[in-house]
Write the structure tokens for this entry.
Amino acid sequence: MSLVVFESLKQIHCAECRGGPLRRLVREAGVPRCLDCADLGHLVYLPRGDAALTRRAREASSLSAVVVRRHRRRRRYERQGLLVEDAALAHAERACLADAEARARRRERDRARRAAEDVRFTAAFAAEILRLFPGCPPERAQAIAAHASVRGSGRVGRTAAGRALDEQAVSVAVRAAVRHTDTEYDALLMSGVPRFTARARLAPLIDAVLDGWRTAA
Ligand SMILES: [Zn+2]
């Protein structure tokens, strides 16, 4: 059971000090009083909207009051906010801030962990490329692996087969890299040659590069 403070737009005055009109008031046995006369004048107002802050402020405040306003059409009182002790609100704000900082630190740790995973995965991918294609220049293998493992790219390195370093998936990534880097495939596409025609035309050239890479240089 909490104390209730009413918001009012009516011309209501305090029964005790005659102050008013009162925007916020309490009713004791139907008699309106201002917050000062009701010994609530020292409390600060916290509008609703932040559930965690509200809960913490209420818990930390030895005295608090719910502020309500009557909604005429809905014919009911609706909660507007909370009156709490200044120190309790400050305490609650610090606690919520600490939470936000903890969440930010956790996100940073997750990000660093994923980055480390990506580095490890890219290295493993490059090693697998070099195992299958010992003649591939190491910097090319590294570049192909890095390109294939870009997070969120949907590229082969992010697929299940790629993650498992499936031989076929690794070969597909290498073949695609050769197609784009070592042939005029992209230029053919730009000049309007249909994709499958361009692929077919370049297949022997790509096979030759890959065959060359399959044996150590
Ligand atoms: Zn008063």
User: Anything to note?
Assistant: The mean pLDDT is 91. The chain has two domains: 3-84, 114-213. The longest strand covers residues 76-84.
